[in-house]
Amino acid sequence: MIPAGFEYHRPTDVASAVAILGRHGDEARVLAGGHSLIPMMKLRMAAPAHLVDLRGIAELGRIEIGDDAVVIGAMVAQHDLIAHEGLAQALPIIREAALQIADPQVRSMGTIGGNLANGDPGNDMPGLMQCLDARFALVGPGGEREVAAREFYESAYFTAREDDEILTRVIVPRPPAGAGWAYEKIKRKIGDYATAAAAVMLGEGFASVAMTNLADTPVWCEAAGRALAAGDVEGCVAAMLEAIDPAEDNRGPVAFKKHAAAAALRRAIARAQARRA
Amino acid sequence: MTDQTMTPEERAASLEGMGCRRKRVEDVRFTQGKGNYVDDVKLPGMLFGAFVRSPYAHARVKSIDAEAAKALPGVVAVLTAADLAPLGLHWMPTLAGDKQMVLADGKVLFQGQEVAFVVAEDRYLAADAVELVEVEYEELPVVTDPFKALEPDAPVLREDIKDQKEGAHGPRRHHNHIFTWEQGDRDATEKVLAEADVTVEEMIHYHRTHPCPLETCGCVASMDKATGKLTVWGTFQAPHAIRTVVSLISGIAEHNIRIISPDIGGGFGNKVGAYPGYVCSVVASIVTGRPVKWIENRMENLMSTAFARDYWMKGRIAATKDGRITGLWCHVTADHGGFDACADPTKFPAGFFNICTGSYDIPTAYLCVDGVYTNKAPGGVAYRCSFRVTEAAYFIERMVELLAIELNMDAAELRRINFIRKEQFPYASALGWEYDSGDYHTAWDKALKAVDYEGLRREQARRIEDFKAGRTRKLLGIGLSHFTEIVGAGPVKNCDILGLGMFDSCEIRIHPTGSAIARLGTISQGQGHATTFAQILASELGIPASDITVEEGDTDTAPYGLGTYGSRSTPVAGAATAMAARKIRAKAQMIAAWLLEVHDDDLEWDVDRFVVKGAPERFKTMKEIAFAAYNQAIPGLEPGLEAVSYYDPPNMTYPFGAYVCVMEIDVDTGEWKVRQFYALDDCGTRINPMIIEGQVHGGLTEALAIAMGQEIAYDEMGNVKTGTLMDFFIPTAWETPNYVTDHTVTPSPHHPIGAKGVGESPNVGGVPAFSNAVHDAFRAFGLRQAHMPHDHWRIWRIAENLGLHG
């Protein structure tokens, strides 16, 4: 449980961080909260020669609540998402989801950017951001580009981010007034990844549904959202069960995971409907 | 208030003796981060050792190339079996009469087995060097199923003993067979079963789990070449036994070995045995002439150091049609892994599993245990229980529930009509034990009344109706457990480990000013010995507990004892403490008589002093007596006030308890919630109720973990699937229910203070209570037996198999 040796870099602005990445190519990795990368390094399943810590970059730690969108810096910790009153007003589903990630110690270190950029299908934020139709700002040597959350995830640990790019901000459009919302996570214990988790937003004539840890990427299902928007809960569940592709692991076999997925989704829908103004 | 004006009751209270909810004196340093654990030991020039471990569960080791590792600057040595063989240390004896490879000798038998030991200037370099050792393996067929291991054409696991027909515990009938252990009367039991009104047969599995103490295992070995003295600091639950074993293995004279157990961060049986890390550290220190530290990481702890349970228990129970149990038959297939490194008293290869008749008056019984080798880690330790007692309690408490189903009886009533009655104690069980004391009916009735058992059953019936009508997806389970522990090993006439009798000891020195130090052969790992043993002494000697230092764990200073596990500290060392104190009091009485110029028999003991009978104003306090012992020339008496006692208990003690668990279960997701848990424990005389409650809370939480998710699982290739705390369930505050504790007091008749021990009862009784709650929730829908752990998907599978998902 001791990582191999590495060089540690702590740049103070994004341009410097990108430059370091550019210099070292795939020998370098960005370090955010470290709660995925550091354990992998301790197991020596990851051995980056250069670690670029983003903690010194102040601009990545901001939350801006705009009229149309909320912009969250990549280095905002889960704890900060929970504690931010403006965010809780604008997008309460983020607080509900963040409170179900790991435990308080991990949440004070783990960041939204790390959670999104790592591409771990067990992470909660990717599915939530797909549900919310968020966009990710990526900064590389050629400047900044935006990628939709719904197009970012390719397979487990593979994303649209290039090796020399840094995910710097998350842009989340504000949902229509009165929309109902819920993030429901079934897990074995505190600190665990989801057995099944569902993010649901719904309102007048629209609905968006995404699920976590039920395929090698988060699963946002357009057909499920369409069915739910039309008031067809069972149609929504059926469409989602078609879209997911869970694998057997210590949490259980595939049949159980599908059953749990349906239960989680029904709970989330019921709660979202109850919250709809 | 001076002691002249205090009443005897006030004086007794000021001592903080037995029965006092005295705060734990250990917690001052633990809560301030001032504990001193083995990884806190740092010596000048200390090196760090780390293991190269096998990625395979069964493989031949074709070659080991350590050249690249040795070439890394800062690497001092790389040890392999070839280096240890000339010393005869490439294998070591186990506590179970088997032997175990210290480092892979030609093959490996489980994933995580120790293959080479790298010694470097620091732990970072050691970790780097481990990566550089190249081992060439040839994979062999893997057996993780003990039943398949006994098939005629199963792969030979232990080539070293494949032709050996006789094992440490009698004949071996197959190359992967370790022992057969039989108790009771087979023919009589078969006859009872054949003639019974009702019989039930079932396979009960107690899965493989792990004690997983907060602190992993480790040691620091320091060979002083100038003095020839070896000092080993380590996480040892039995420091004296380790000293003797080290001496026997290494040939170093026992007086030249000093074992020190510093603060230990939990043991739960994991730290009883001897591990390759200890041997390699000692050898490395001898070879390099420098201290060598070895500390396991969490994954190594879960993969390689002693697991617990893995018992397949086939049971048959016989009863009359009105529910009187007439016979019990049990066959256990015991999976011991690659080496038999069980930590049991030598004559008990399946521990005290023959307590499996439980709390019931069962006239006829038969038990047969077969030990089997598989490609899994060795162990089989008593994880917060006396030897194999939690297995036994789980077995009988499941069998009784199954019998209740068969008889269509209430499980609480079936237990009540079969309990051993109060007047039957001392009770000779069909499988050979003599239960010392008990009052099961009183405890049971108190427990059922406290939880309003009848009301719970009515609520459950309503819930079943609601479920059937589609009004809820949650079921209610009422889990019952009445357990009898057997602890305090044990009488030297039948209890030894490697020939070492399982007595224990206490040495007391009263200082001239009336304070004291007591040293014991046991070692606390969180049990609070420094608090509770001082309380026993306070009551016995009349010295305030706060004036007594309790010291354990240093073999150079402590009297010889067999250590702390199996809830033996209070039954054995606690008795030694009382007996040593009584020797001191006897001498103190003679001193007081001389000081008061009366005959010894004219004095009587009064809390903290000897008083002249009929003249209460004439007395000498223990404090005054202590001063006189060192400063007066008393005719016929040696100066000083010290005593030592080695206590060989006449019998085990038999704590018992009655537990009720109420659990809500979601049939769709398998999610569960413990709504209520009531735990009544009878541990005889209660020394510190606060510590007892804390022990019960901790033990119940481990029981919850075991029943509801904690396991060491292997895939078919022998890979450990649960090697980190992500998958190995350790409950947090969030998962831990609120416990209600209660008690009755039935003292042990043979123990000097009537105490029986309690630390492990909650694990023994808790596991069946939690598991029975899950089973009980589904009883109305036809469930008989579902194996633990009851994690979400396995509960879901119960509902699925019963057709409850529509």
Automatic annotation (TrEMBL), chain A:
Transmembrane residue ranges: none
InterPro entries: CO_DH_flav_C, CO_DH_flav_C_dom_sf, Diverse_Substr_Oxidored, FAD-bd_PCMH, FAD-bd_PCMH-like_sf, FAD-bd_PCMH_sub1, FAD-bd_PCMH_sub2, Mopterin_DH_FAD-bd
Occurrences of domain FAD-binding PCMH-type (ranges): 1-177
Domain of life according to the entry: Bacteria
Single GO MF annotation: FAD binding
PROSITE patterns named in the record: FAD_PCMH
Alphabetized UniProt keyword annotations: FAD, Flavoprotein, Oxidoreductase
PANTHER family named among the record's database cross-references: XANTHINE DEHYDROGENASE SUBUNIT C-RELATED (PTHR42659)
Protein name stated in the entry: Carbon-monoxide dehydrogenase medium subunit
Organism: Oceanicella actignis
